[in-house]
Amino acid sequence: MKEYIPNGMVQKQYRWEWVNYYLYQYLQENNAFPKLRDTFAELLNEQEKQLSSLQKLAMSQGIRIPSASIKVEFKRVLECIKELYDREYQLLQEYKSYAEYFLPASSPQLRIPELVNSQLAQLNTLVGLKQTLSELFKEEGHTQKPSYILEEGYRLERIAIGLTFPTVIAFDEQGTIYIAEAGFAYGTEPGKGRVMRVEKDGSLTEYAAGFGGPVTGLAWHEGDLFVAAGSLGEEHGTGCGQIIRVSRGGMRETIVTGLRTCGDHYTGDVLIGPDGKLYFSVGTATNSAVVGLDNGLILKYHPDFHDAPARDSVLAGTNFITRNPSTDHPDVAVTGAYKPFGTPSRDGEIIPGQLSANGVIYRCNLDGTDLQIVADGFRNTFGLKFSPFTGKLIATDHGADPRGSRQIRQDWDKMWEVTPGGWYGFPELFSGLPVTLPHFYVPEQAKPTFLLKEHPPLASQPQVRFQPHSAAMKFDFCTNADFGHWGEVFVAQFGGFGVVRVNPDTGQIANFLVNPNDESTADGPFRPIDVKFSPAGSELYMVDFGMMGSGHTGWKPKPGTGSLWKIVKT
What we know:
This protein is an alpha+beta fold. The chain contains 5 helices and 31 strands. The protein has a 5-stranded antiparallel sheet with strand order 1-28-27-26-25, with no helix packed on it. Strand 22 and strand 23 form a beta hairpin. Helix 1 packs antiparallel against helix 3, helix 2 packs antiparallel against helix 4 (112-136) and helix 3 packs antiparallel against helix 4 (112-136). The mean pLDDT is 95.
């Protein structure tokens, strides 16, 4: 493979290291322990070395690096140390990926090993600081936690209750809210979704129903409502998913059909772009491109399902052995990448790319014609939005899990700035990093290797990585300075039980709303899945999916526990 550096990778690292430099300065200035004076001085010294190394790396590759004019948000000392640890750990994995994947031959000349060692020294120090200060400043346990913790200066109001698995909202031209109920949730049988109109008194009126679940995307445009339906358990041509246009009078038309949503992930979102085109996403069929025993529910309805790539892919012939649950007698199954369960792959086998693919973002006309793939190599892009500041398409993407035949450990959720025609890594790079890094290894499981013999160039690194399994869902940009945090992105976190705000320039993440009790809270909010600002930008609406339950607790998804909330500045 020809050596290269993904677009913007060094520039992002340089920006992040400058943010870290200011954070280390903040720690030094607020140090309450004289014995740690030399420790913080050494951390700053290592930081200066890293900035110098990145400058030299950029110069050697002819890369122009940005200025260091950056707005940094400071937290309490212990929180600042934890934030630095997360940021430095991510940067360490990126620096390791230079030697492992992007620049394997030239890494020694570019002094990448020195950069890695400097990063390791900082991380080791931060581990000690984090553990020690956590013990010194351990908060006293409370017998009862509040239902939620909201950033000071804001108020949370419940608007509507009694919803069953709501996923997304949209506003019409008058500011009326429409909210979709998915139709089912993981752990329940496939069902039908519907769209409700939220009246001014908070009551709900059915607007349209009978959509194949799960319904995961809504977009209002000039009197029409565009609905993204997964239709799991149904077959429409080559796949299950559909995009349906519903007129104000109730007339409906299926404008796109046969989307490959017969799997783990569905149509993630739908929106109208600044070019007047319809944009929507389709997730992968599996966890990491191999159908396995973790796909039992899907195999029940679609026994031949599997991932399909958007571009020609040459297989390495890697196969995975499992038991075969479809027979009455003891049997095994051998399954390859991009193959139905029980079908092996061959070394050098070419899987042709196709329009009906997985892990892609699509674009088409509003009548469904001229369907095109914008970008591919995603895993599950559940949220889409064009930045009102840069005009670029932004997507949230879910990380892989330690499950199935090809297990991936501690993959992050992330936010991408999407480049048309770009490849974003699946199934070989996760969160911008090669799957062969030890970070992704699951103890006592097969170490993940590459499934393909050749890779396209990676389009970029993520703008932001969220905590693994935080389930970063839909999001919106703050464009009203009066609300506060102008220019930041507010992201619903289904697995994180809250809403975070993100500075896309610095990669800093801060809690905005947190449910500290998970699903044991008395009355919610439980699992935020969508956030959208009102048309004026003065109010932030939040969709709460309700009680999902988990495999660890044995809880089942609970209908009727979903709700709609509003956050306002006080």
